[in-house]
């Protein structure tokens, strides 16, 4: 298997080359091209040993994680095949190696992963979920292989040794073992809100954090008032 990031910066995408029998998984709707020897299937996030209740829980978790309930799977039927994947947002795509590190992705940042990656959901708590703008549920990637994440704007990797502050809405992913709290950016609530910074995420421990340079919710807040009202 080979993964090539087509571009860096705006409009990033990934081209995955698979050999016979190799498998890759992506968020449903991420594929923009595939060779004719790639077998494409769609499956739910429900684990194989779970029934209807498990499917319902998986759907609820996916909704709160900002992800689709469905995943697309790609298998190469013979020879060598290609799959092209791209995110919805304009921005960068990053290939992250999983194993021994376990990565935890914020809502909407998961794009795809190789067959050796186990995907699960992790509840981050009601208070953190409400105020972090990253969703109530994160996507946990364990095992060994390649993990594709996407961000709005440019993605930066930060080594954490002790602590770091991330502006609210800019988190992409972090390694398991790091912890974080939500706090105001300034010394007081009024100064924090008036400055435009609002809330921040304070990470502590040892590990890595991926952050995006732009916050899509802020762009939406700027563009929203400029759009014409919906008819009907």
Task: Please explain how this structure is put together.
The structure is a single chain. With 232 residues, the chain is α+β, with helices and mostly antiparallel strands. The chain has a single domain (2-214), classed as Mitochondrial biogenesis AIM24 (Double-stranded beta-helix, 4-Layer Sandwich), CATH 3.60.160. The protein is 15% helix and 48% strand. The chain is built from four helices and 17 strands. The protein has helices spanning 52-64, 126-132, 189-195, 216-223; strands at 2-5, 14-19, 23-27, 31-34, 38-44, 70-76, 80-85, 93-98, 103-105, 110-114, 117-123, 137-143, 145-150, 155-167, 171-175, 179-184, 199-212. The strands form three sheets. Strands 9, 11, 12, 14, 15, 16 and 17 form a seven-stranded antiparallel sheet that branches. Strands 5-6-3-10-13-8 form a six-stranded antiparallel sheet. The protein has a four-stranded antiparallel sheet with strand order 1-2-7-4, with no helix packed on it. A hairpin with an 8-residue loop joins strand 1 and strand 2 (14-19). The chain starts with a strand and ends in a 9-residue tail after the last helix. The model is unreliable at 51-67 and 191-196 (pLDDT under 50).
What's the quick description here?
15% of the residues lie in helices and 48% in strands. With 232 residues, the protein is of the alpha+beta class.
List the helices and strands and how they pair.
Blueprint (H helix, E strand, L loop, with lengths): L1 E4 L8 E6 L3 E5 L3 E4 L3 E7 L7 H13 L5 E7 L3 E6 L7 E6 L4 E3 L4 E5 L2 E7 L2 H7 L4 E7 L1 E6 L4 E13 L3 E5 L3 E6 L4 H7 L3 E14 L3 H8 L9
Antiparallel strand pairs: 1-2, 2-7, 3-6, 3-10, 4-7, 5-6, 8-13, 9-12, 9-15, 10-13, 11-12, 14-17, 15-17, 16-17
